[in-house]
Design brief:
single chain, alpha/beta, Rossmann fold, seven-stranded parallel beta sheet, 10 helices
């Protein structure tokens, strides 16, 4: 299925993005990797080419810049490449209460987490529809399916955008052979929490709440292959989301407010 395909993966330098790159390369798919850390991208590209014999291309880009998706797409096209699979994975968190950060910090966050996701999809989707085959995976979060909480104020909201955007796009392209999936992992081992400076709090959580990035990538790829629109990664998180659905809203809100971080 994948030996003639090319996957574009954002935020590919570490964590879940790197796991997606590894998994697609293992399947024989050529990969286009993008992130802000060019050195790590080049090292990953070389490793994937040596290990799996695929073509791996790297493009350094900062998706917080409004023009970045268009420039990235132009660079890809200029090298004679085309995107058959898009994984919108780039993301991060803004800790603290909403008004503690300058508006530009939040604006950049929305650009990366929402606008760039929609923009890259808008740029890559026409080819997929024309060839009547394509996959789009938007990496959301189980936070999108739970009540909002204080701190990281825009995080769950941005991930909810990814879920609703994926649901709507899936309906629009369902007759064209293109599949769109929102992946919703919970806590996943990566650099994410180290960057936020909350590793001690995270390490105190029960081990059964933690997911492996490789498994998240594999489950998400299987889901998009099957045409599954929503993929809740990890059995424990399926249970949690199921309980929240049947729980009185006021109770679920109260439980969420107990441990906002």
């Amino acid at each position: 299925m994948y030996t003639t395909r090319t996957a574009l993966i954002t935020g590919a330098s570490a964590g879940i993005g790197e796991a997606f790159a590894e998994e697609y390369a293992r399947k024989g798919c050529d990969v286009i990797l993008t992130a802000r850390r060019g050195g790590r991208l080049k090292a990953l590209s070389q490793r994937l080419t040596q290990r799996y014999g695929v073509r791996a291309h790297s493009f350094e880009a900062d998706l917080a810049l409004p023009q970045a998706p268009e420039i990235l797409h132009q660079q890809i096209t200029a090298q004679g490449l085309a995107v058959d699979i898009l994984v919108n994975n780039a993301g991060y968190g803004v800790p603290g209460n909403f008004t503690e950060s300058a508006w530009q910090v939040h604006s950049d966050f929305i650009q990366v987490m929402c606008t760039a996701v929609a923009h890259l999809t808008h740029l890559c989707l026409p080819r997929m529809v024309d060839q009547r085959w394509g996959h789009v995976i938007n990496v959301a979060s189980v936070a999108a399916l739970l009540p909002g909480n204080s701190q990281h104020t825009l995080y769950a909201a941005s991930k909810a955008f990814c879920v609703k955007f994926s649901e709507s796009m899936s309906l629009e392209v369902q007759s064209s052979g293109v599949h769109v999936t929102a992946a919703c992992p919970g806590f996943t081992y990566s650099e994410f929490h180290d960057v936020l400076g909350v590793r001690p709090e995270m390490d105190a959580l029960p081990k059964f709440l933690w997911l492996n990035a490789t498994e998240v990538a594999r489950q998400s790829i299987t889901a998009v292959e099957r045409g599954q629109v929503l993929c809740i990664n990890g059995g424990i998180y399926k249970v949690i989301v199921g309980l929240v659905k049947i729980m009185p809203y006021r109770l679920s809100r109260w439980l969420t407010s107990r441990r906002p971080r």
